[in-house]
Design brief:
This protein has 317 residues and is α/β, with parallel strands linked by helices. Helices cover 35% and strands 15% of the residues. The chain has helices at residues 17-21, 80-84, 92-100, 120-124, 127-137, 154-160, 173-179, 186-198, 218-230, 247-258, 263-269, 278-294; strands at residues 23-25, 28-31, 37-39, 50-52, 55-56, 87-89, 108-110, 141-145, 163-167, 202-210, 235-240, 298-299. The longest helix is centred in the last third of the chain and has 17 residues, at 278-294.
C-alpha cells in the first residue's frame, strides 16, 4: 500500500517578510499596519520628529532618498525594490484616527517613507482621509511631495490648514533625469507651487537634496532660488544630501559609474552616519540664505511647536 511520508521538518518560508505579511494586488503590497505614526530618522533633515506615511517605497526613484533603508526591514533591498515594490498601508486612515486620539499635538510630517501622492495614490486614494483626520484632530502637519497629484486635494488641504512642502533641489533637467528619474521635472514642480499658492494652500519649497559637487555651484543655486521665488514661494528650506545606510550604498554605486572622479571626494566629505561635513553644509545653506534675502523669501525650517507623544510608536509595515 502506498503512502506519503510526513516531513519531519516543516518547510522554511524563504520569501521576504513583506510577502508573507501582505496581499499582493496589481503589483502593490497591501498591508494592515499595527501603528502608523513613526519617528523620523535624524538623517531626514526636516524639522518634524514624527511622521505618517501611507506608502513605503517610491516610484520617483530618487537616488538620494533617505527612506531607502526601511525596505531592508521588510526583506527587500534598498535599491531597485524601493523604487518598484511599493507597500500600501491600506488601514492607515483608521489607525491614524485611533492614534491621534492619544497624540499630544506635536507636528507631523506626511509622506516621509514614500511620497503620499505617487502613482499608487491614484488607485488607493488614502491621502484625503489622512489629511481630513489630521485636520479634525487639529494637529499641525506638512505634506512632503514632488507630485502634481497633490492638487487634487487642494481644497481639503486648505480646509485642514495643511502646509505643503514641494521638493525642488535644482532646475537642471540633466541632473533630474539622472538622480530623480521617476519624478516630474523642475518646471512642473514650480508650476505646482504657483497652483497651490493660488488655491490658498500654504506652500514652501524644500530645496533638497543639494548634491555636493553636482548641483551646488553658485550659478546653479542662484538659478534655482530665482525660479522658486518667481513661482510665488515665500520660504525655502535647504537640505544638503544625506547618505544614511541603504541610501549611501545605492547613491555611491551610481556615482561610481556616472562620476567616478567624485567618489573619493564624497568619501572625504561624509562621515560614517551619512552626514556631510558641517563646514560644507554651513557654507551651502549660508549661500542659499543670502540668495533668499535677495529674492525676498524666508530661509530655513519653520519653528517647531507642540509636545511629543507619551510613548514611541514604531512599525515594520
Amino acid at each position: 500500500m502506498g503512502w506519503d511520508a510526513l516531513a519531519l521538518v516543516e518547510a522554511v518560508d524563504e520569501r521576504p517578510l513583506i510577502e508573507r505579511r501582505a496581499v499582493v494586488r496589481d503589483g502593490f503590497y497591501e498591508t494592515q499596519a499595527r501603528t502608523v505614526i513613526e519617528r523620523v530618522p535624524g538623517s531626514a533633515g526636516i524639522v518634524e520628529r514624527w511622521a505618517v506615511s501611507p506608502y513605503r517605497g517610491c516610484v520617483h526613484a530618487c537616488l538620494g532618498c533617505g527612506a531607502r533603508a526601511g525596505h531592508r526591514k521588510l526583506g527587500l533591498d534598498a535599491g531597485v525594490d524601493f523604487d518598484s515594490r511599493v507597500v500600501v498601508r491600506a488601514n492607515v486612515v483608521e489607525r491614524l484616527r485611533s492614534e491621534l486620539g492619544r497624540w499630544e499635538g506635536e507636528p507631523l510630517a506626511v509622506g516621509v517613507a514614500g511620497d503620499g501622492y505617487q502613482p499608487a495614490e491614484e488607485r488607493y486614494r488614502l491621502m484625503p482621509g489622512v489629511v481630513a483626520a489630521l485636520g479634525a484632530a487639529g494637529v499641525p502637519f506638512t505634506v512632503y511631495t514632488r507630485s502634481a497629484l497633490v492638487l487634487r486635494d487642494a481644497e481639503v488641504l486648505a480646509r485642514a490648514g495643511a502646509r505643503v512642502a514641494v521638493s525642488i533641489a535644482f532646475v537642471d533637467e540633466r541632473i533630474r533625469r539622472a538622480v530623480e528619474p521617476g519624478a516630474v521635472g523642475a518646471q512642473a514642480r514650480l508650476e505646482l507651487v504657483s497652483a497651490l499658492v493660488e488655491a490658498g494652500v500654504e506652500c514652501r519649497v524644500l530645496m533638497a537634496p543639494v548634491l555636493p559637487l553636482l548641483s551646488d555651484a553658485a550659478d546653479q543655486l542662484t538659478a534655482t532660488v530665482r525660479r522658486i521665488a518667481g513661482a510665488g514661494a515665500v520660504a525655502v528650506e535647504p537640505v544638503v544630501l544625506r547618505l544614511p545606510p541603504g541610501t549611501r550604498q545605492w547613491y555611491m554605486r551610481w556615482l561610481a559609474g556616472a562620476h567616478p572622479h567624485l567618489v573619493e571626494r564624497y568619501e572625504e566629505l561624509y562621515d560614517r552616519a551619512g552626514f556631510p561635513s558641517p563646514g560644507y553644509e554651513q557654507r551651502i545653506t549660508g549661500q542659499i540664505a543670502q540668495l533668499c534675502r535677495v529674492y525676498g523669501m524666508r530661509c530655513g525650517a519653520p519653528e517647531p511647536v507642540g509636545r511629543g507623544p507619551s510613548a514611541a510608536q514604531l512599525a515594520l509595515v
